[in-house]
Amino acid sequence: MSGETISQMVGRLLDGRATARANVEAALSRLTEHGSYNSLISTCEQRALQRADQIDQSLRKEPGRAGRLAGVPFVAKDNFLSFGAPTTAASKMLRNFQAPYQATVIERLEAEGAICVAKSNLDAFAHGSSTENSDFGPTLNPHDKSRVPGGSSGGSAAAVALGSVPFALGTDTGGSVRLPASFCGVVGYKPTYGLLSRFGVVAMASSTDVVGTLSRSAGDAALLVDVMSGRDPHDATTLDRPSDLRYKGGLRPLNVGLIEEFMGPEVDPAVKAAIENTCQKLARMGHRVNKVSLASLPLALAVYYIVVPAEISSNLARYDGIRYGYSAPRAASLEATYGLSRDQGFNAENKRRILIGTYVLSSGYIEAYYQKAQTVRTKLINDFKAAFKRFDFLIGPVAPATAFKLGQNTKDPLKMYLTDVMTVGASMAGLPAVSLPAGSDPAGLPIGAQLIGPQLSDGKLLQLAQDMEGVN
């Protein structure tokens, strides 16, 4: 059961070989069995079992009629507002926060019968690339407990890789779905910016935040985006569903661009070899692969770590110890409440990003840093547009190397930030991208190949990913 796709699990439910309750109980059992990986912050057991019983009862009344995700258990990253467990964003600041409503994407999944069984671990407020910045302790890599699972959606990726659930929700601001997918050996999909609603998701950087999925197959990712996508009156950035979102036609021979900037000497030889093998697979499928250079791409990381901290500084201003979240118990004045609550509630990485963001937005520096970064961001967007005039999709690694050791980068923020060097470009440009398993290094650690498409090419991108899964 643990290796099933979503469609296989729903099929067993509809033909009577399984029940929603049995699916939920099995998922909760596996999550408990894998507790030593620390992929979870909490479970939603009571509510999950109640929902499972409701689905089973409904199927008894109307056999064969159920939602597309009926009885399928899943895990949500703990920055999604949901019922049945606290929503903490893995931070002391929100340790006991009970959501007053659910995220739109969770509502849409539940409307099709999916069942949230647990909330997964992450870097606090999604600030990190390793899931080591969690106030609930680090998550461990399913392939090697001495290594990180990637971040910030490391708990979600680990839960899927361990076979606990068929899919999990994550968020991707600069690579936080794709990187853990690569490190854990699962499929990580980041949609076009605005395709999925962010309503009910704890904000990090509003101009790049997207809801993403971690799953066992690209086919499951395509089904999930079909369920969750579409306009949401609560999120003004949402887009209309493209007509070819569930693309089913055969793909003509495509032009795929291998990004030269992602294949330099700093890239691990095993990663290079895996990407070259993936390019050969595309060629065997009849597609054409040629090198492409994007001149501004090496600047993307610097732009990201100016723009995103600026937005973090603004978004985290709401946590002041007054309305909700952690409030310092011994503060003697209003000013002390603000200061102590933020000092005690945020961890070191949260504070670092707030300080950087506040600095680049401050008088005398906003022109020198923030405005120049936005100018380069526009150049990056234009470079991607130019590349997509020649190529249908782009390909490259997700990261320069496989999963690193726990603690290896925690004392060197710059080295940690460099982990995102190959994922931030697509985020800054709002492009869809998917990480596909592409082999492993000599130590057996997974390697991901990243496919990037033009905006709103999600349907064809995921179809290409599905086609690639069927070719050796």
Automatic annotation (TrEMBL):
Residues 23-462 form the Amidase domain. One of its GO terms (molecular function) is glutaminyl-tRNA synthase (glutamine-hydrolyzing) activity. One of its GO terms (cellular component) is glutamyl-tRNA(Gln) amidotransferase complex. SUPFAM superfamilies: Amidase signature (AS) enzymes (SSF75304). It catalyses: L-glutamyl-tRNA(Gln) + L-glutamine + ATP + H2O = L-glutaminyl-tRNA(Gln) + L-glutamate + ADP + phosphate + H(+). Its EC number is 6.3.5.7. Keywords: ATP-binding, Ligase, Nucleotide-binding, Protein biosynthesis. Belongs to the amidase family. GatA subfamily. This is Glutamyl-tRNA(Gln) amidotransferase subunit A. It comes from Candidatus Chaera renei.
